[in-house]
Specification:
Layout lengths: L5 H14 L17 E5 L4 E5 L4 H9 L3 E2 L10 H6 L7 H4 L2 H4 E7 L5 E5 L11 H4 L9 E8 L1 E2 L3 E8 L3 H10 L6 E6 L2 E8 L1 H15 L2 E3 L2 H12 L2 E4 L5 H7 L3 E4 L4 E4 L9 H14 L8
Antiparallel strand pairs: 1-2, 2-6, 3-7, 4-5, 4-6, 8-10, 8-11, 9-10, 9-13, 12-14, 13-14
Length: 298
């Protein structure tokens, strides 16, 4: 099923619920037909889009007004996938993950109910911040049909500094304790730290000069950020760590793309653990509340 409207998606899931069928989002229910920009309030730096629009298509539309969604995960996912998978890239250092950029959402639940929460919507549902709740939900709570998002101006200039070092943790510590304000700060372990500055041309030049004086390094082409995203996409595991424990984290992995501010490392090996009993109970309670018939269950 490839619905072109929220109403079609609602009817499909209502039928599946009534008939006792499963409907996996991304397999049985595709969002490619929900790919419109519904509203762009350039003066307010907000937009409302359908969940099936590709990130590249949205960025192209926003660029015409000198704006962007400050989200840069690997590949070209849909906006709904960005939320459902909690996808982000190097810009998360400054702008955060989808959780920090979403203002409101409209969901279609497993029984066909259409529920909205947050800003830029006609009717809200009390009790849940649905926009933040569905971040990382992997499509198990509902179809992300519409999303309202916070935007930022396109920077006038950008500059990248790469520091080759055997002490990446020390470089990161020095930069984070300084007055510099990078938009991205990745450790390309082993051996390199990449730093991105954005803004007015004079401000970018001043920050590059100050960063070089602090930690050395050389100016680099923007391709280093594509390398970072490609390595992130190829990673099989995702480690979480206390940002203050970066030295120990780097010493325990042979290769990784590390986002120190977020405490996340993308590693080439599969990693994972068993969720705590509390996390399992919370997950079960949410799925019981949003999809009691298990229509969206995997």
């Amino acid at each position: 099923m490839r619905p072109a409207t929220v109403e079609e998606a609602s009817a499909f899931l209502a039928d599946a619920s009534r008939d006792g069928r499963r409907a996996r989002i991304g397999a049985d229910l595709l969002t490619g037909g929900l790919d419109r920009v519904l509203e762009h309030e350039a003066g307010d730096l907000t937009c409302t889009v359908e969940g099936g629009i590709r990130l590249s298509a949205l960025q192209a539309t926003l660029a015409e007004a000198g704006q962007r969604l400050s989200l840069d995960p690997p590949g070209d996912p849909t906006i709904g996938a960005c939320l459902a998978g909690r996808l982000s890239g190097p810009l998360s250092h400054r702008y955060g993950t989808p959780r920090d950029l979403v203002l409101g959402v409209t969901l279609v639940l497993g029984d066909g109910t259409v529920a909205s929460s947050g800003g830029k919507v006609v009717k809200n549902v009390a009790g849940y911040d649905l926009g933040k709740l569905v971040c990382g939900s992997q499509g198990r709570l509902g179809l992300i049909a519409r999303v309202s998002l916070r935007l930022h101006p396109l920077p006038a200039a950008t500059g990248t500094l790469v520091v080759e070092t055997d002490d990446a943790a020390g470089v990161v510590r020095t930069l984070r304790r300084s007055q510099l304000a990078p938009s991205a700060l990745d450790v390309l372990h082993p051996g390199r730290v990449a730093v991105l500055f954005e803004g007015a041309e004079a401000a970018v030049e001043a920050q590059l000069h100050a960063a070089t004086a602090l930690v050395g390094g050389h100016r680099a082409e923007p391709a280093v950020w594509e390398e970072s995203r490609e390595r992130q996409a190829a990673a099989l595991g995702r480690l979480r760590f206390d940002p203050g424990d970066l030295p120990n984290t780097l010493s325990t992995v042979r290769e990784a793309v590390v986002r120190p501010a977020a405490g996340v490392a993308y590693v080439p090996d599969r990693v994972g653990g068993v969720p705590s009993p509390t996390a399992r109970r919370l997950d079960h309670a949410l799925r019981e509340r949003f999809d009691p018939a298990g229509v969206l269950g995997s």
